[in-house]
Each structure stands twice: as C-alpha cells, then as structure tokens.
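U., I forgot to send this yesterday:
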Amino acid sequence: MSDSPFQSVSRRDALRLTAAAAATAALPGALRAQAPAFDTVRVVTGFPPGGTSDTICRRVADRLRGNYAKNAVVENRTGAGGQVAIDLMRAAPRDGSVILQTPASMLMIYPHIYRKLAYNPFEDVSPASLGCWFEFGFAVGPMVPASVRTLADFIAWCKANPAQANFGSPAAGSVPHFIGALLERASGVPIKHIAFRGTQPAILDMIGGQIAAVSGPVGEFTQHVAAGKCRLIATSAAQRSRFAPDVPTYAEQGYKDLVFREWFGFFLPGKPAPEVVTRANAALRTALAAPEVVEGLAVMGLEAASSTPEELRTMLKADYDRWGPIVKTIGFTADS
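Result:
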C-alpha cells in the first residue's frame, strides 16, 4: 500500500485486524455461546435503510439476536451527517444494551471541521470492535454522456459544462466528500459538492439525472452499476477493488495521493464497565466471523473484520491525528 497520508492504516495493521475476524471462530465456547443478557439490544446507525451502514447493522443484529440479547433491533437515527446517532450515545445506558455502528469519518474527521461538535469521540463513545473495511468509488449517471468512462473524461466534461459539474456524497465532511474535493484540487477544475443524508439518496438523484456524479462506498453502487443505471469510473484503494476489478483506481489514473480505505466500527456509550466491553466485543467478533455475515457484507462491497477494543481505540487515535493536517490543507469547515 502507499505511504500516502490518506491511507487509513498500514498494511501490517490491516492484515492483523482482518485476521482478527478469522480468529474469532476460535474464541472459547464460553465467549461464543452467551446466554442473552437483555430482552432487546439496539444497534444504532446514523444513516438510512438500504445503504452499507444499515446493511452491516442488520447482518450483525441478526447474529446478536437470541445470543447477546433475546431480540435485536436496528435504529436509523439519521441527521447531521451521522452526528445524531453518535450524540444519542451520550444519554444511552452503559450496560451494553445500546451499540452504535458508525463510519470512521464521524469520529476521526468531524472533530476537525465542526467548531461545536455535540460529542467527544474519545469520551462519549467507547470502542467495542472493528466491523469492516471498505473502499470508495466515484460514479457518473445519465446527466453525463455515455462516452465519459474515466476520470480524465469526467474532468474534461466538467470543464466544458461548469454549470453541471457537481458530485454528491453521503455527508459534508465525510471521506467521500473529501475525495471529491481532493479530485477537484488536483484537477484544477471546479466541481461543486452536494451533501446528502447517506449515499443511496445521492445515488437516486444521480440515476434520476439531477446530479452528475457521486462519491461513496463502492458497495453502494454495485446494484445500480449491474442494472446499467450508472458507471463506476474510479476506486480509492491502493489496488483495484475485488468488488469492481475492471475499474481503475484513482492512482492508476494519475491521482496518486487519492489512496484510501475506511472502516466501520462498533461502539458503546462512554466509560462502560470492563465486563460490559468484554461481553459486547465477544458477541460482535462472533457475529462478524459468521459465514453468512461475511458473505452478506461482501454483497455490499464490505470486508468483514473485527478487533479488540484496544486495537480499535489505537486505530481511531492514529486516524484522528492524521486527518487534522489533511483537513487543514483542504481548508474545509462545517461553516464553509
């Protein structure tokens, strides 16, 4: 992998954390077969139904049901680019009955762009386990001519059609937003950003011809690409995505600094008792190692992975520190 500051973690860390998911299958039976601790566990996401964040919540919730809790429900608390769901955790019970699942952006980037963020990413939530890795894609819809098949084609089209040159993302200040902003800076051609409440709403506007392009997780595009409703023209990892092997990376197309993967993590309300964290971690790691979860996430372009709470905490801090100077270079704030 590249040593670019946009890389989430090193290859060594990625391999170690991905291997953690496989190792979960070897957890002691006492950890893998728990008696339900609650009537209901709430798995909270800040994004709407149908997208990648919602998908991993529902897959994992299915595996928590009847094991970690008698029942498991997914709550889609959308708003403020994922902030509403995280803010909810400040008042949530600290007994493990409420679990947050969030993309890293809301914890590693938002503190750098919001002057008055409602939560503290290191105090109001407590790491439970990594959930998955994913990469980003850039797609164009019917507003853009069928001849546009590469980033160079898209940039040329944007230059020739400045009034229509735009892209959507799942949230202002998210990694997909910044990838588009970095593409704009590197190309020197203005491309207006339009923030949505999740990637799927952005894609629906794109395939409806209301916006030109969307930057978002690769898995969000797969069903629409297969149906011929949009075209994926770039992916963001160091190598081509196994979910879109025919699509060249940003780096292959001349944007060598646009190398990035992100992760989803599971968190508990801040400062839970150690035994609460241990129990939640064991249940999550077991769920994430289940073949049906691994396969179900792969359909959405997600690579299931788990970690210890300490590994996730270390990764979050490293990404938080890395994104500070990147955000400063881009010059974006939530008020801009």
